[in-house]
Every structure is written in C-alpha cells, then in structure tokens.
Amino acid sequence: MKRWFVLAALGISGCGGSELQNVSATVSAQAKCPASISPGPRAAPQASKALFASLSKLYPTLNRSGATVQGMFGLAGGLPSTIRTKRYTTGGASKACGSKVIANSWLAFVRLPNAPADASDHVVYLTRTAKGWKVWYEWNPQNPEGAVVDV
Predict the structure, then answer these.
(1) Which of 2, 105, 135, 149 has the fewest CB atoms within 10 Å distance of its CB?
(2) More confident residue, 97 or 6
C-alpha cells in the first residue's frame, strides 16, 4: 500500500513527467543560444562559408562528400510573399532561443547526397556573433524536434 501511495504522489507532483522534462530541456537549450548580432551587408557569402567550414563538426558520422546548399535566406524579412517562412521563424528554433536570434539568423537547406536517405536533408540555422558566424540550430527528419547545437 505504501508503494502505491509513493508512486501516486510522484505521478501527481510531476517527477519524471514529460512537462517537467520539456521545461528542463528548454532551459538547457537557452544556455547554448548564441548572442547574435546584425548579419551585416555581406551575410550570404559569409554564412555560406561558415556553414561549409562547420559541416565536419555538425555531421561527424555522415558522409559529407558532395554536400550542397540547396537554398539559403535571411529570416529578418523582406522576402517575396510566395516564400513561406512562418514555420522557420516561429517553430522549434524560435521556441528554443527567441525572436531576436531568429531575426538575425540565416536559414540553409543542406543536402548530403551520399548519406543514408533518411539523413540526407537538413535545415540549419546560422547567426553572426561577435566571434563570427555560428551554426546554432539543426533540424532533420531523424530529429523532427530539432536541436540547439554548439558548433
């Protein structure tokens, strides 16, 4: 009887519950969020160069040969209305690090053609910091929640 009472008390208090785990994951993700600054006028080539330089750290176990960026754009706005960016500006990355980091970020669609099919397409967020461009968030079909990364 005492065991059932303890288990019921733990269940009611939320110890080990998914809500508690989500909160702690968000807090730890916020600790890794970059201190972003304005991308500046040469953002596209600088972000692209930083992305390719960080691929080996971002995907150490995947075959990166032939990697391409299929598209890249800034999330600050100014894009034609035909380009739907809402899911990228209000999704997991925004929830993890906030709208200021999103507004200073660039988004890249990365294809790794020699990786396994379920690990070949990736969405990568980059932002400029005082130390240069940094990859800070990554999404792929194997990780549909996405994750803050420290690359």
Answers:
(1) 2
(2) 97
Encode pLDDT of 30-49 as tens digits: 448 999 999 999 999 999 99
For residue 143, what are the β-bridge partners?
A: 140
Degrees to nearest 5, angle at CA 142 with 104 and 113: 80
What domain range is 7 assigned to? 1-32
Same domain, 14 and 75: no
Q: Which of 12-16, 43-47, 88-92, 122-126 has the lowest mean pLDDT?
A: 12-16
Using the predicted structure, report yes or no on whether residue 18 has a pLDDT greater than 60.
no
Query: What are the Cα distances from residue 30, in Å, to 41, 47, 91?
Result: 27, 22, 15
CA distance 142 to 151: 19
Q: What does the mean pLDDT of the chain come to?
A: 81
pTM: 0.77
Gap between the Cα atoms of 13 and 36, Å rounded: 37
- The count of structural domains within the chain is 2
Looking at the fold, whether 108 and 79 belong to one and the same domain comes out as yes
In degrees, rounded to 5, the angle at the alpha carbon of residue 107 between the alpha carbons of residues 134 and 147 is 65
Domain identity same for 8 and 41: no
